[in-house]
Automatic annotation (TrEMBL):
It comes from the Bacteria. Residues 134-252 form the GFO/IDH/MocA-like oxidoreductase domain. SUPFAM superfamilies: Glyceraldehyde-3-phosphate dehydrogenase-like, C-terminal domain, NAD(P)-binding Rossmann-fold domains. This is Oxidoreductase. Keywords: Oxidoreductase. Belongs to the Gfo/Idh/MocA family. Residues 7-123 form the Gfo/Idh/MocA-like oxidoreductase N-terminal domain. It comes from Devosia yakushimensis. It holds the Pfam family GFO_IDH_MocA.
Length: 346
């Protein structure tokens, strides 16, 4: 069993407490931390958590209980200082994305984890679904040869779907597209080389910053990705992972994942279309622990076994996804000019 402390019990953190952590059997909760007494009281009143396991500071919790893992579920700007302190106190860490506000901060956290011999994982939950795992395996096996062009569309209409973070900077690229960028890297098994991106905010939008964007991404092995994302789309809603068409030398791999809309949930989907043939649906292997339960179960297994599995989203690996976000934001600020990932990673 992995003994864990959760840090951050706000709106999203409470969702982890209630809906995610109880579903991972080899996690034993020994502490809950939040500086807001109301948040602490909520987990006590609504979930029956013993008040002896609740603390108003991380230091207080670490002094009172023995833990192996910190589950950091706070607002983004708190990630860097809290994760840093957890690592300094000797804890392994799983943290929500993005795991730092800047690449420089992220590099510091990765170096600290390495120096202290601790595991730092970023909860890239979209990786733990049937379709992207199958797509990654098909690409790795070169099912249809080399990948030439990948087209991805993400469409949602935030004002009618319960979105509430209207003043968040870069609501598309930093909050949503980071999932898609991370999946690009995982599924292609490749790293981005440079990007060009434009973003904008349409009339009558409630967003304070740009909710729509288009980007062209060039990967190291030559694959070009065409990406279109919108929080203000009036078109058909896509699954949360978007709609993917991967055009290869001998056929296409077409897939979508996390198909949740208005309280309804559909399965992941993947089809293969050989050159000049009709698309054929593929039966997907089930994933034991999906989404956020998948990320938590993954780090628990790593801590128990000491073995790092394929496609594990370590902090070091996730530096490249964070850099991709920063590169697209930088490109958009420069009017769409090409930005090299190497510039961002310096």
């Amino acid at each position: 069993m992995v003994k864990a402390i959760q840090v951050g019990l706000g709106h999203w953190g409470f969702s982890w407490t209630k809906e995610v952590i109880p579903k991972v059997p080899n996690i034993e909760m020994v502490g809950y931390v939040d500086s807001n007494p109301d948040a602490v009281k909520r987990v006590q009143d609504e979930l029956g958590v013993d008040e002896k396991s609740c603390f108003l500071s991380l230091e207080e919790a670490v002094q009172a209980v023995r833990a192996d893992l910190a589950i950091c579920t706070l607002r983004t700007e708190a990630h860097y200082p809290v994760v840093k302190r957890c690592l300094e106190l000797g804890l392994n860490v799983i943290v929500e994305k993005p795991f730092a506000s800047t690449v420089a901060q992220a590099k510091e956290l990765v170096a600290l984890a390495k120096a202290s011999g601790r595991v730092l994982m970023v909860s890239q939950n979209y990786r733990f679904q049937s379709a992207p795992i199958a797509a990654a395996e098909l690409i790795s096996a070169r099912k249809f040869g080399a990948v030439n062009l990948v087209s991805i569309d993400f469409r949602r209409h935030a004002p009618t779907q319960g979105y509430r973070y209207w003043d968040m900077p870069d609501p598309l690229l930093a909050d949503m597209s980071i999932h898609h960028f991370d999946l690009m890297r995982m599924v292609l098994g490749d790293e981005p080389k440079r990007v060009s991106c434009r973003t904008w905010n349409p009339e009558a939008s409630p967003f304070g910053y740009h909710p729509i964007g288009v980007a062209t991404l060039e990967f190291e092995r030559g694959t070009i990705v065409s990406y279109r994302g919108s929080w203000m789309s009036s078109g058909p809603v896509t699954p949360w992972s978007g709609e993917w068409t991967m055009d290869c030398s001998e056929g296409e791999i077409i897939w979508s994942s996390r198909d949740h809309f208005m309280g309804k949930s559909g399965p992941d989907r993947l089809s293969l279309r050989a050159l000049d043939k009709e698309a054929v649906p593929v039966a997907l292997a089930p994933v034991q622990y999906t989404d956020r339960t998948g990320t938590l179960a993954s780090i628990a297994k790593v801590l128990e076994s000491g073995v790092i599995p394929a496609r594990f989203s370590s902090g070091e690996d996730n530096l490249h996804s964070l850099a991709l976000v920063q590169a697209t934001i930088t490109s958009a600020a420069r009017g769409g000019e090409w930005v090299d990932i190497a510039e961002i990673m310096q």
